[in-house]
Amino acid sequence: MDLQIFSIACFLVITTTGALDDCKETPCQNAGECVPSFRCACLSGWGGEYCNVKQELRHNFEDTFGFENTDNNLKRISAGPQTIPEKGYEGTSHYGKVESGASFELLTNKIADFEIKYCLQFGYFMQGQYTELIVIQENTSDGSETFLWSSESPDVFGTYGWKEFKLSFFGKPQSNLVIKGKSSDDSGLIAIDQIKVHTGNCM
User: Which of 43, 142, 170, 177 is surrounded by the most beta carbons within 10 Å?
Assistant: First the structure.
């Protein structure tokens, strides 16, 4: 009589949902705060389940994150047939605008990662002979400034339209970006839209 032996192996599989019942293990990164029933409350600029994903800063005038308008001269304008320009950058319905005799200043929140590359990009529209747009990096500890870029005043007789701006730069400790615009021409205006700052080189 043939004797056959069957071997049966049993495996115990334990699955977890990944969520923790409490904050004993302090899983939140980048100074995020763990709150009961486990959720990370992240500082501005960080996201993800554990505050481990670097978020981009943006100001697209549809909603706002990470920028401060310091003098309130930059107005959110609804685009349409009666406005110049008639559409926002990339066809959006709103943009920021200053007209003749006005200026504006936009600040990012602090960029604190030294020797990490960032990309700043936005769309801009300029009209008039004496208009200017500049980007500087400001040291918040001593007030010193590093010049990064300046626009050229458009040809007053030229064809106007939205232009794309991209700039790769290195972050510095205790610094932020400042975008300034000025229009001193009677017929001048500056519009800006879809402002983004993210880690890495501009593509």
Answer: 177
